[in-house]
Design brief:
This protein has a five-stranded mixed beta sheet. With 119 residues, it is an alpha+beta fold. The chain is elongated and about 55 Å long. A hairpin with a 7-residue loop joins β4 (89-99) and β5. The chain has a single domain (2-115), classed as GTP Cyclohydrolase I, domain 2. It contains three helices and five strands, in the order ββααβαββ.
Length: 119
């Protein structure tokens, strides 16, 4: 079993529902964990047998930058669903931080996960 982490994916998103948030791009920070059976990739050293995290990241960037979200919960679910579309992913966890969402706090974040095999 291998685990791929995409750490610190820093994007600008149309997120929020308060009057002062509407129409403004805001910073979000995304961290993703993906567990998959990496044994064939480990043995073969062939990219065709590995989880293509580059293509997945490009899709996530497009999703976040081209969508409109009221809540980090909605954004997190959409990103997680996109990750789980890849049949190689057995378990995934997505954390999205919204920096400076609260006064005096570094950020507010939400983490959700999904599993194919009841992990």
């Amino acid at each position: 079993m291998g685990t791929i982490h995409i750490k610190g994916l820093f994007l600008r998103a149309n997120i929020g529902f308060s009057e002062h948030e509407l129409g403004k791009l805001q910073d979000v920070l995304i961290n993703i964990r993906m567990d998959y059976d990496s044994s064939l990739a480990e043995i073969s050293d062939d990219p065709a047998n590995a989880l293509d995290y580059k293509t997945m990241t490009k899709k996530i960037v497009a999703l976040v930058e081209q969508s409109r979200f009221n809540l980090i919960e909605g954004m997190c679910r959409k990103v997680l669903d996109m990750v789980m579309e890849n049949p190689l992913v057995i378990f995934a966890e997505v954390e999205i931080d919204k920096p400076h969402a609260l006064r005096f706090a570094e950020s507010v974040s939400l983490t959700i996960s999904a599993s194919r095999h009841g992990k």
